[in-house]
## 1
Amino acid sequence: MADDSPRRARPPYRPLAGGLVVLSLLAAAPLRAENGVPPPAPSCAACPPLETVDGAVAIGAGYLFDDAYAFGDTFGRARAGTYPVLDAALRWTGEGGQYGALHGADLGLDRRALALDYGRQGRFGLSLDYTQTPQRVTDSGETVYRLEDDRLVLPEDWGHTPPTGLLPDQAETLHPLAIGSDRRRLGAGFVFFTPQWDYTVQVSREHKEGMGSIAGAFGTSFGNAQSTLLPRPIDALTEELEATAAYRGPRGTWQIGYHAALYRNGSDALAWDNAFDTVGGAGGQLALPPDNQFHQIHLAGDYHLGERTRLRGRWAVGRASQDEPFLEPTVNATLSAPALPRDTLQGQVWSAVWDGEVVSQLSPRWRLVGSYRHEEQADETPRDAFQGVVNDTALATGARANTPYSFRKRQARVSSAYTHAGHKARAGASITTHERTFQEVDQTVERRAWADWRWSTRPLDVAIAVARSRREGDAYTPVETTDPPQNPLLRKFNLADRLRDEASVRLSRLAAPELLLGVTALYAEEAYPDSPLGLQASRETSATADAAFILTERLRLHLFVGRDCFRSRQTGSEAFTTPDWSAVLDDTIDTGGMGADWTVTTRLEVGIDYTGSRSTGAARVSGAAFPEQTVRLDRIDLTVRYRWDERRSVRLQGVYEHYRESDWVSAGLAPDSIPSVLTLGSEPTAHRARALTAALQYRF
Amino acid sequence: MNGRTRVEAVRAGGRGASFLPVAAVLVLLGPAHAAPLAPRQGAERCLTCHGDHTGPKAVAILRTRHAVAADARTPMAQEGCAACHGPGEEHARIIRQPGAPLPLLTFGRTASTPAGEQNRACLRCHADRGRRNWQASAHERANVRCVDCHRIHDPVDPVREKAEQAALCSACHPRERADSYRGSAHPIRTGQTACADCHDPHGAFTPKALREPTLNQLCWRCHGEKRGPFLWPHAPVPEDCSLCHRAHGSVHRPLLNTRLPFLCQQCHSVAGHPSLEPEPGGLAAGDLANRILLGQSCTNCHGQVHGSNHPSGAKLQR
């Protein structure tokens, strides 16, 4: 029996409607006397009015005690000082189902959100929303460059000496650089309902602005390359449109939709002065992400084939295109590159995704599921041979043809589940074929089998799952277009033969009405048996435990702990022959937290939460250990709410966050630490941030 | 069947089940009150015991979208509380014996009603395109109840608030919670990126219940600069972002599965630029070793890892 078919939906009770009516007519008076529940008044006095206005507004101020740039990533403010607190949630409902709502959160911070809704429930709805999302990476960067007329220029007295010892005489030319960005998104939507159709249109416009970083290299080989990490201005616009029409019928649902996405970059190139005079020309120019667009239509639906079987499917076809004019092969005036075979990319990539599924409840206890998925991407960008210039330094040896990558992935799955007395056992298998162009392996085939068992009773829920998969591919053949060639013993991990085993256990127990316990454990292991070079094996283990207590009506506690471990092993060859080194990488992450919610009195509530995370990354190469990379996070959130009366309350919130990391990649790295790379000299992130807010909340 | 046709069936008395609400009213009121009450008045009968002053706080549902009588699809425009909980006349008639199950559809983890039956009550109205993939979805297979995530009786359903969603999902997905606390992560724990921004908890065709037809299409909605196409693509990029990135959070910036240079060296070892052995000693001395270890490692030179549109960008450096 299809268990969620709307057509066959019935109330879960078995009425004796006619008999009940007769009984009621014959014995109404004695029945009322027995149950003792008085008949209701003619109007619903306990019900709220049909037209209401309610909401809450919180106004106050906060103070951030510390400058903490990366803290602004999550908190919404990075600089010490005072900030406004303004939150609002207002709702209006009308007698005829009309509604309006205004929702604003963190309006005084960089991560603000504001939403407006209006409509008539069941008829139409309008929405308008604005969100701002900050990203704060680091503010400890330093650069000698300044941006002038879309070009990164060096100081006028720049020495252009070789990188070693570059800056002691010119340290005063460095100025601070912060890496981060802000996304500002404005969205609008409209939905219209009829009894069987609904129509939706959503549009959005997001502006991303800020500063990133990117490498600008000169030189023609690994041996003579010199590079600079450059500040990269970010100024990009993404606009989206989504329109759908959906139908609800007695035997299923259908939907057609269109999605369009346009990406616009404020600049198509980044030019910079060459900081070195030993290699390359006076400057360089690289291409920033080009404008592109994507259009897709989709059809989706489900159909009830009889009472027990449901068919569902989706078909989506899209096209991504990009046709921006090419930059010149070089800005080095001393070099003369041949003309380009064409002026623009004329790039287009077709994508097609088909999903089909059959779910059949063969009996109340036995279900069969079969599915097929086809995912295809056809890059129809024209191929031509481009005679390039290596890093604005010298002509490349010979022209090189571009390689538009295409792939096709197909998967068939079947599974069967049997349920009895709270036990549910399931087993299934799948086969996935993956074909690619311009890759070392034309086709891989992966076969997977899995089984899981679940036992659900009211206090206890246990689930165990295991799976094994094996991937095999065609012969590994070097790709002609790879120049210079790869070591023929190298196997890329996404193409290589692979064995994968997985197992997981999940247990959740309601030990008492006031105590909920949960435990999970996961194990996954991969091996690449036919990969002389490259990734050899990986293993992931995870264990977590959660508990939630209701100690009293007024006091609730919760805590959680968890450990995740990830280990991988790979080999390499410095001599470009057989493996001559190996590396073992270990990442361990411990996470834990606890919290309490305490209703001290009918007016006073206190909540406190602590979360801690300890990450350690270790690397050993041929037995020699790198320093450990560590990340430590401790965060405490405290909330105190005092209610003056039903409408007014005071809310105090405190946040403490201590974050520190150590990473040998960046620790003590000055801009001139690396002889051939002028870096941004960023330090590992560390901050201790304290914030306190006080707000008056009024409910109406 | 959609809400409108259900209402029509009840009014027509075409099915035995639809006859019951009228019968329930007659039983409760007797002949003196034979005319059926409006559903909100019927709800007040339940509120006699289940109002704010005693018992579970049921009245709050009357401030939610489920109680908008002007919308014919809502429970309160149909059978009132009985639309979800079943008829109340028997429940109101008998004295409940300790330990005996309620003759009603009850919801929640401790309820005697099986999860599937609880969910069917919701799916009578909500089996629309948003729940097309519910049957046989990961959550349905795991016996997740609608009410495990949704608070039907609350004026504000926490799971529909972005700021609250991560905490709720973390109750069953602790690994993803741990990932969100790593050094490089999407802003999930603060609610700026909600779980439902990427995943459809009611099920989807795409693996991991992703909202878009493919993982890459989902990523490109926020990271459109990576979509391309490019003159010089980097093969794993258009195929699958997760070959290099771990979306919930990672120890290695930016959201990398493995730190550099090791990640690149898993796939690259070319003549003239072999996979140099990263040596701890190279941290302090040596030019070439420094360059592949410190700063941004391989991307100290190869900055265009997602692809380049520059005619001279074949090596992803321009």
## 2
Amino acid sequence: MMHRPEVAQVRRAAALLIALVLAAPAAAEPYRPSDEDAVVERLPRAVAGVRAEVRAMREGLAREPDNLPLALTIADRYIDLGRVESDPRMLGYAEGVMHPWLNAADPPSAVLVIRATLKQYRHDFAGARADLARALERDPGNARAWLTLATVERVQGNYAAAKDACGRLSRLAPLLITMTCAADIGGLSGQAGASYAGLRAIFLTRGESASAPEIRIWTLVVLAETAARAGNTAAAETHYREALAVGRRDAYLLAAYADFLFDRQRPADVVRLLADETATDPLLLRLAVAERMLGDGDWLGKKDMLEDRFAANRARGDRSHLREEARFALSLDDDPATALRLAGENWQHQREPADAQLVLEAAIAAGAPNAAADVLAWLELSGIEDPPLARLARRIAEMPT
Amino acid sequence: MTRLACAIAALTLAVFAHMQPALAHKPSDSYLRLAASEDGVLDGRWDIALRDLDVPIGLDGNDDGTITWGEVNAAGGRIFPYALARLQVRADGEACILSPGELLIDRHSDGAYAVLRFTAACTAAAKRITVGYDLFADIDPQHRGLLRIDSDAGVQTAILGPGQREATMVFAHPTPGRQLLHFVEEGIWHIWKGFDHILFLIALLLPAVLVRRDGLWHPEDRFATVLVRVLKIVTAFTVAHSLTLGLVTLGVVSLPSRLIESVVAASVVFSALNNLVPMVRDRLWMVAFGFGLAHGFGFANVLLDLGLPKSDLIVSLIGFNVGVEVGQLAMVAAFLPLAYLWRSSWTYSRLAMPAGSAAVCAIACLWLVERAFNVALAPL
């Protein structure tokens, strides 16, 4: 029985053969389909499913342009679609729907929170923080704002501020959410063991009743990451598997589990995990890296795809994918100098363990241990517990300067 | 209980935000190209994502999650006005008149795009072109128009969007010499690209290095004979297609393109078949001439699609024809020595020629059916 990659290979070879034999050279030129019923584009499943509903809502908004609650509903719907399909276009639509209110002089706190969310996706973390601060000033009971703020602080490596924001959730959100938020930060800032134990206890009693699968997945991912940080890799693996079993295709979960598998030197498992995930750039990237490690020639085609996508992003002036571009330069393009530069630039914007790891790996590959000084200092300061980072830091310490 | 549900729903969104999203596709872009044509007319090509057009215009007519060519085509009358109303092109301050052209499809790295060809009629010899861009400004503030202007002042690009709605670029119009060269290049490119033209010629030339005796192919020993044969065929083909190319381009005669394309395909079938079942032996140059007339119609359609300057029409026509001949000559010059050297081997007369002719015949039959009945048979 042929495995999926082999079938795909045969299909591809056959298509190439047919194309070679029959093709009038098809330059990259626009064409006029000869068949009226030829499908030229498929809308993403989630988008197609709600198209009629969203159109009706938009028409409602067109009739009542001042209906802020309706606009907020549509915007949230788009943001959710953007998550499910990993598609930033949806965020643009959300912004478009909120446009009349976004630039008002003194927007209501709900608008500020949406604006902050959009800024966060665009990696404008300073802007997001400012909006959230204003929103919370007016509405200190806004759980969503606190949770979003905790995210922004976490991404930027400000663990004390993140812990504070998580703490404010305690009377505003279900216990599971508050504890997951806190455990996540605790795990990052040197209390991995205790955070894991505490969160696990709560999850065992409250986990099943968490209504939304997204929340269960989030908690399980935090449990897995925190367990890994505490050195309990068996538990980490279990929790990742449980998260997968929830049944939602979640790009963040897949990326996190893949990174865990990479740390355990298991590229074959990464390939199995990410087999068909070529639509999402960060997953495509990890898949290509794993295939390269296994000596599977497919990685070259994926490398080309990624290059095209990065080029398309650069063409529109988008610089929010520095982490992916740095990893690409390091692990697929064999260009440690560029990787180090991009990783350093990325580090100015975000400071998650993955960002630190990139700088350290690039510094080692480029033979430039001094370039890692900033990150090493941050590791000391934050007290972060992370075995892979610790290993890399030790390796750098041993390098001649 | 609903209050709590709403609150949890809102938190869910924040939870997602908490899990640094891995956004896959890219935000919305359109690709806008302007290039000098002639007499102040700019040729425009605007690639707009079908997914983006679906939001204001609603392309998925039957709401089944797919957009078909039929649905796009039917919406053409709405797509052009929608898009062109959100584009301004000014030459030295004066507004240019935008006229819609053909609607096509192209694929980019993130999906299928509608290709809107259009022209902008501007004052001749303008020095500065200003493009004003408002597409999707009310729908998606993150949408960007990636503008590219080709002129003799080089290629200039700009990124347009709500933050920068206008871009002004210096423009230079092509000199007649540059224009001629452009058409020569197009001629070479199109004979190179036109497999059917070259296959016809090559199929006719395959037996030129052989002679048929007693029902079998033998190598032709006299090079002079081979040369004369080749010259007759190539010259006849050239004269014929130049003749019709000129007549059609100058508007003297015209035939439906589907008919022409089918005849061209049929010519390839005939010339390949003739190598397997010899019907015409000594008068191949007449076949080359007769079918060459049809091939000329085919070239003319291509040339007309490229858009000819009203001034310098003859010059551009001659340039294109020169390009075709240069390309043709190059390919025959590459083929002939190989065939001549190879002619004595049994692999040529009993393997390559019959097998090659059979393959060409099969392909050409496919083309003939596709073109005559306007269907797509090959998954290309």
## 3
Amino acid sequence: MKPTEFLEKRSSHWEELEGLLAGRGAADERAAARCERLAFLYRAVCADLALAQAYDLPEPTIRYLHQLVARSHNRLYRSSGVPWREWAQIFFHDLPRNLRSDRFAAASFVVFWGCFLLAMLTAYLSPAQAEHLCGREQLDMMDQQYAGLHETGRSSDANALMMGFYVWHNTSIGLKGFASGLLFGVAGIPTLVFNGSFLGAVFGYMAAGPHASNFFTFVTAHGPFELTAVVLSSAAGMRIGWSLIQTDGYARTDALRRSTARAVPVVVVSVLFFILAALIEGFVSPSGLPYVYKAAVAVASTLLMLAYLLLGGRGGAAAGEGVRRGT
Amino acid sequence: MEPVLDTEIEVVTPENVAFSYRLAGPFPRAAAFVIDVAVRAGVLFLVGLVVALFGLFSLIADALAGAGFGFQAILGMGLVLAFVLEWAYGVAFEAFMNGQTPGKYCMSLRVVTADGAPITIGQAFLRNVLRFVDLQPVYSGVLGLLSAAASSRFQRLGDLAAGTMVVSESRARQSRLRIDDPRAAELARELPKNFQPSRLLARALSDYVYRRRGLAPGRRREIASHVAGPLRQLLQLPPDLDPDLLLCAVYLRTNRDDAAAGAASVYGVSGSRTAKPGPPSLDQVLSGIQQR
């Protein structure tokens, strides 16, 4: 078999495949017929490539065939859509169960709330310490912000603006906290310590100050969701970062890849919580509702999260296995 | 033969064909990233422009004034849009456009998994969220660059965590290996019939013919003389024969079935279909060449 014969005979097929890849086909051909033709030509070109390599055909031809096969392969083997059932299984069954045994979530929780409570106590007892932790300007700004009492709440207009701002600002912080956890699992801890201490000091300072009721009226409603989201996103970051250190015998890149399977659902849930917190912080917290309702929102959100964490995935292993087998 | 030291990764498809992907290094990827940033900024700018210029915001404000919303609400929506564009743009495009964002499409790049399979949503999410680390310190991209340099597949940290790589999909054109010189065909007919070059020689000849297009005649002679010298001795040809011409002739002999050669083919079928006078002798061809 002479190469030029081969080239001449098969060129027309290759050009047809190129045309199909570029979206050109006979105008009267149906899409199904085009698909079949593409698959047929792809198999033929695979065989051509094998032949070309076996017969040591000229280099440019082989390179061309490589590219053609690669492009057709990418066209035929495409990303699949959204696996809804799989996702439902992960978020309603696997994730709560994994969170219950997640030592990074526990560590993150302890570090954050430990710093928070410590800082709150310190700031409550000694405003000078609060100033050390937060800085004078921040505390002054807080005082100013909560000096005026919102009788009727802000306009919905301003609420919508602030909601957009919180969605953008807070969720970005959460996602960045997750990403920076990659730096050996340590980069998450300073963030937690800083955030915990800062927020705790603010809480303690305001609690001891004259505008305590205004402050707590504002922050109560969205507190649970937001603080939980911070803890969760940092926990996920710590997990992927720590996998680079404790590799369990795998290569570091492989250990990293394995840890992401458990980390990603946690991040997604934390993003969800951030968005919910932003919604509440934008519309409920600054509104003129009586404090009782805001506290009720806080309690409800806490109970919801607890229910998800403690009751989720408890349907029994049998229920979970059944879903997995069915899909 | 040893694998070529190049930025290519071999993938075995379900059809049991091994083909190679060409990896994309940091520079095309940086260009694609810049294009993506420009696209996102452009979208935000256009949205803002549309809202402001056409007074849409006043229309919406009137419509929503009943619900108490106005211009600030639109700003709020703008902030949400900015958030979505910052974090979800890459994820959505890579997951639903088979691994290509608009920037990557412009640069003919594609994200695939490390073994050539298409990318999943989880992988797209991971590599886009972790881009924040790759851009450190302070948005310089140094960490990502170091990671790409150290990885065998140009993987930045986000790619390592997600198990993906970025390949280049540029289109190579089918090249025609044609020799326009008629003297080479004449000489090819005159070569001894029992002379069959080995596969390695045939491959080298086709490489030479492909590359000689871009070379000056003097350079061609210089390169060709390395192989033409021994060939001349083997085939007992005159020493002043143009080496480039000789290699072209041998290439033609190897790669084209010359029906007019009049030689009996391997399967015992006579090569010539039309009765032609006998081919010119080697002396005639050579004297013809020397005269020109």
